[in-house]
Every structure is written in structure tokens, then in C-alpha cells.
Amino acid sequence: MSTSNPSQTTSGGTPIIKIRNFDFAYGDAQALFDINMDINAKEVTAFIGPSGCGKSTFLRCFNRMNDLIDIARIKAGEIKISDINIYDKNVDAIELRKHVGMVFQKSNPFPKSIYDNIAYGLRIQGVKKKSELDEVVERCLRDAALWDEVKDRLSESALGMSGGQQQRLCIARALAVRPEILLMDEPCSALDPIATAKVEELIHELKKDYTIVIVTHSMQQAARVSDRTAFFYLGKLIEYGQTDQIFMNPRDPQTEAYISGRFG
Amino acid sequence: MSTTNEQHTFAKRPSSKAAIEATISGAFRIATYIVILCAGYIFLNIAYNGSKAVIIPKAPFINIEFLTAKPQTLHVFEPKEIDTELKSAKAQIVSLQTKQRNLGSNETTAADDLEQQVTALQQKIKALDLQRKDGRLMYGDDAYRALDQEPSSELYAYSNYAYSGGGIGPAIVGTCLLVLGSIAIALSLGILCAIFLSEYSTPGPTLQLIRLSILNLSGVPSIVFGLFGFGMFVLYFDWGVSMIAGWFTLAIMALPVIIAASEESMRAIPKGFREGSLALGASKWTTIRTNVLPYALPGILTSSIMGVARVAGETAPIMFTAAYALRDQLPWQGLEQKTDFFFQGVMALPYHIYVVSSKIPQNEYTRNMQYGAAFVFLIIVGFFALSSIVLRIKIRKKYKW
Question: Considering only alpha carbons, which residue of chain B is nearest residue A103?
């Protein structure tokens, strides 16, 4: 296996995120080694790999959430989104995060009403007009296939919803600021199969308008929802390609071992 | 066969382990009961004795004068006849007791005889004392000066007692002002510090050191804070003995508790709220303002108000910085400039209790004042504690997670 230049570029589609020679470390412990890949716009890209392989860390580099960790640092390389190096000195992480939304592993609705949760992203940008907020709340809830379930209780606390609804609310909340890219960090790991199916359906719908990068532990999920799959192991990108190809015909023996359940 | 039945697998068997277990749980129980008993005794004692000063038998049942009037000297006229009789009875007891002591050990009958005489005299004194209380005339300063004519000195023996008349109005007002001012200063400073420590600072040995120093500050004796406040605010800043010096001294004293508790409340807020907010493009301060502070507020307010209420009961910090033993005016009276309001000393209940309990000769009249002031103070502190609890419940209802 070669770590220097595993299968990086994508055939077909327009790459929106370009990662080049990316090295990342927590203090002295290097977490990601020399990653090169392109992620296509309006596609679903899945990151799979065993726990601790760096896939979540990598995902959090796309919207600079790792900035919150003091010891985290980029050792080398760059990540370009729409041809802008997001770790450039004059990039404002706050502006970046408006364009690159994120949904977390554990659903984290704010302890406010459903309406206030969705409106939050706009309100902090200074939008006050009720009609505009109303419109966005309805659009986002419809996009997240949640409108029919909650339209009568928008003013109730978001914490009264079921786990699956909460996670879809978080997706809707992320959509409210109209990001181009949506990062999902194991969004279904705490959900039951029915809620998972709904979220997956939603991902399928959202693909039309958004670029989605999803980290998942479930290989079935990666196979179901993604167009392309990247397999990570010990901080290295082992294999990256069309989901069908990765699952049917993996080129790397490690990928094959992981997919067939021999480790991980 | 019944014995074998009792010896089934799960049967209770006496063992040393079980005995130790029972003893330990018993010890916990006893310790708790002792604490409750002590606290109960203190509260009841203050409430019982204090209510004599605060509650009166006729409508409106609350001694408004005691709560609003200024402290005054009490002028007492006691019926001379009874007074003389009392004095002679007391003298007799003393002489009898001396005789009794001088008797040899074998003269038991004589000793018993003397003993009986003493008891009889003591009963007489009790009866006379009741008469004296019925017959005496008591006036505060104002009433005394307003008298057309003093009670005749042939019938009455006159004496006066400082601080024992009037009420504690200025001390109540002063305490409330001191508490409110120091809450305002301590809360704003404390929350700013806590936000920095919990949200902005970089973890590491320096932060640990800062935290440790802040915690240690709460172990510094209150008199040291008092002297610091005296040196810093009263002398160096030249504010004089003033309310504002007291505010800052009390606030600094309450700060360690407030910072520690506020930081704790903020760190208890799940990380998910912060991340969720940041991921939506909120700045750090927006995140803290909208998604950390509101949820941490109940904890912050409760601990802060309790902290300040505790500090407000201290005498030492205000003794040199803010408290007057006696001040005739309420804080808003007789101001030349508006700013003078902050730069005047005030009376305060803890200091007042200290003065009437240890700075003046004790007698039956100061006792009333001591317990009355302590009782009122207890109620005020209780009120602050209660308000913090109510506040917490209200905010907690708004944000639940």
C-alpha cells in the first residue's frame, strides 16, 4: 500500500473540496498523515474506518472546528474549498462555518423552542424580520422532512422531540444558514433503525442542493447513501473511490479486510 | 426443622461486617441529628428572644418603631421604693452567703438555716422585680426630651442606657444597601472572570495556579480583608469610611466563591451547545451570550447571592471600611451632593450587633436590642437566600435540558 499517493482525484463531477498533502496533529501525536483527495460538489462522500482512525478529526478540519482544541495544529498541506485555502491567515473561521455546516454525532438541539432553534443561525446574523424568519423556518423544516410532524408545536421545546426528530432538527438548523457543504459526523449512531432510515432518505434528498460529507461507522449506511467512499486507517487515507467499486472490488487488501468484517 | 429453614442460603446471619455496617450508618445519623439540633437551638433561641423585641402583643403585632427608629439612649425611671428594697435584699443575700462560707463544716443546721433564708430572699427579689417592671417608666431620647416634667426624683430612681432604646432602622437600611451594592460589583466582576477562565483561557499549569489562588483567597480571614479594604479604599483611594469602600471590600471577599461557582456552572453546560452554535457561524462571544450564560445563570445567581449573603454577615470587613456605630441620618438624608451618597458611612446590622453586645456595658435593656437585631438580620439573610431560590426556579423553568 502506498501512502504517498493513494487514489485521490475523482473522475467526473466538479471537485469543491481539494485536500493536498494534509498533515494534522494533536500536540505531538500526529492524527492525519499526508492526505490527498478531492470531494465532489452535490455528491455524498462517506468516510469509513475503524474507531480512532482520524475520520472525524478530518471532517472537523473542513469547518475548522478543530480550532477549538488548543493543541490541534496543521503540520503541512492545505484544504481548499472553492479554491480558497481555508487555513489561510485572512480566512474568517466564522464566515467559513456559515458555508460549511455541521451535524454532530449526538443531536444537540438548543434548549429553546423548535422555531428558535431553526431561527438561531439567522438571528445571530442579525435577521430580525418575522416574515423572513417564518419563511426560512418553514423551508428548512420542509427540507428536513419535519414540517408535517412539528408544524403545530413550533413554540414547544425542541427537547420534547424524539431522538430522530432532534437529529433532523439539527440538520434543518444547519440548512437555515444556506451552507454549500454539510458535514455529518456519525449522524445516525444514536438513532433507531426507523429514524436512521428517515435521515438517510433526507440525505438522499439533500444531495440535490448540497455537498454532503458523512462520517459513519456503519458500512451498510455508507453503501446506501454515498456516491463515493473513503476508507481511513490509522490516520491514513487507504482507498478512495466510487462507493460501488470500494464495496464490490476494493483494490487495497486492508480495505477488503475491513469491509468484509475481518477487523475494525 | 424450623432451624434448618432459617439457615437457608439468603438467611440473615449475625456477623462483624453487619455490626460495623450498622454502627457506621448509626454514626452518620447521629452526626446529622446533632447538627440539626444545634442549628435548631440557635435559630429558636434567636427567634424566641428576638421576637420579644420585634413582635408586640397589640395590632399591628410588629414593633414598627423598633424596625424604623434610630438607636437611642434609653432613659429609665424605676420606682424608688422597690429599687431600694431590691438593693437591700441583694445586699442581704451577699452577707448571708458570706456567713455561710465562714461556717465550719460541722455546723450543718446553721448552714441549712442560712440557705433557707437565702432562698426566701431570692423569691422576694423575683416578686419585687416583677413589680419594678410594672412600675418603671421608660423613654427613648425623643420622648425623654419631650417630657414636660421629669418624674419626681423622690418617687423614681433615674438611670440611662446607651443604644438600648429606639430601633435599628438605619442599620437595616445600611445592611440592605451594602448587600445590594456588593452583589452588583461582585457579580459583574465575578462573571467576567468566570467567563474568561471557563471559555477563553488555555488549560495548563498557569490556569491551575490562578484557580488555586482564587480558591485560596476564600480561606483568608475576614479581618484581613477588612484591613486590606481599610488600607486600599479608605486610606489609599481616600474614600474614607464609606459605603463604597464597604461595597468593594465585601465584593472582593465574595469574589472567590462567585468565580468558582460561576465557572463550575458554565463548565457544566454540555459542549454540544457550544459546538452547535459555533458550527452555525456564531462568534465565540455570541455563543457564550446565547448558549452558555443563559443556561448557567441559575447556578451563577444562586451561588452568588448565597455567597454575598454570607459575606454580608461579616463584621470584620466593614468594621474599618463602612460601618458607623451610630449615625443619626438615613443614607439619603442631608446630602450636599448626590455623590456624597456613596461616600458616607452607614450603620450595619452585624456591626450594630457587635457594638451592642461587646462595646457597651451589658444589662437587661441591651439584651433586647441584641436579640432583636440578630433576629431581624436572620430574616433579611433568609430573604436573600429565598429570593435566590425563587430566581433559580424561574430561570430554570425557561431553559431546561
Answer: B276
Determine the residue of chain A that is closest to B401 in CA distance: A111
User: In Å, how far is B184's CA from the nearest CA of chain A?
Assistant: 28
- Asked if the C-beta of B286 comes within 8 angstroms of chain A's C-beta atoms, the answer is yes
Give the separation between CA A95 and CA A89, rounded to whole angstroms.
13
B206 interfacial to chain A (CB closer than 8 Å) = no
Q: What is the ipTM of this complex?
A: 0.88
Task: Report which of residues B103 and B197 the model is more confident about.
Answer: B197
Distance from CA of A197 to the nearest CA of B (A): 23
Chains A & B: contacts with CB separation below 8 Å: 70
CB atoms A95 and B281 under 8 Å: yes
CA–CA separation, A176 and A116 (whole Å): 11
CATH 3.40.50.720 fits A15-110+179-259, yes or no: no
Q: What pTM was computed for the model?
A: 0.79
Q: pLDDT of B41-61, one tens digit each?
A: 999 999 998 888 888 877 777
Domains of chain B listed by start with CATH number: 74-166 (no CATH), 169-398 (1.10.3720.10)
Query: Hey, CA dihedral for B294, B296, B298, B300, is it positive or negative?
Result: negative
**Domain ranges (residues) in chain A:** 15-110+179-259
CA B352, B354, B357, B361: dihedral to nearest 10 degrees? Answer: -80
Beta carbons within 8 Å of A178's beta carbon, 6+ residues apart = none
